[in-house]
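Lab channel / #folding
Pinned by the channel admin:
"Please post every new chain as: sequence first, then the structure tokens as a reply. Keep commentary short and put observations after the output so the thread stays searchable."

First post following the new format, from NK:
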Amino acid sequence: MHMRTRCGPSLPPRHSAALLLLLLLLASCSREELALVDLQTKVAMQVYPTEGTREQLLTLVFSLTGEPTEKQVHIVAGNQKSSWVVKARSDEKSTYTVGPLSMGPDVLLPKGQWSLSILSSDGQTLEEVFAVDYPTFKELVAYDRATHTLTLATTEALLSLYDRDGALLSTHLLQPDSDFFIDETAETAVVYVENQDATYTITR
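Reply from TO:
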């Protein structure tokens, strides 16, 4: 004899839709909202006096609420033409660092309003606008290749000397309007001018 199997009552379609909506709402409530806590921008300059070139660099540092997972970051420059897409990971303090970003040798970063978009792994997107500005840059370090003499203009600077293998030989605090002879033991001289946030790299 054929036995008819009886099933329990099923939910009406409208009840099923309501249950699905409730589950989605609960899932979204349990997900912590992505928020930008602190955004800092740093514009620095790398100068190569022996090559006659320089490169301006932008670094972004920020913190986010939520799970410290890898984020996809999209940055659009103030000229609305240049952009970068990078992946960023947080450190042990949930701080993210993006960059340094550059327009290339001898091309300055566009001033004005830049945009930042952050996409998390759970699909949340955060949009932020920030300003990039900097004073007119004036080179304060010169190098005479014939005499191997470095000349510093009107500011203090920190000089580090390295051998051909990249090992640090010595450091020196340079006074304003001073000269420094780079002897044959040093292959590279790196001068950091703090009030410019500029690094001058000289190859002997």
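NK: The longest helix spans residues 13-30.
TO: also worth noting, Confidence is low (pLDDT under 50) at residues 22-30.
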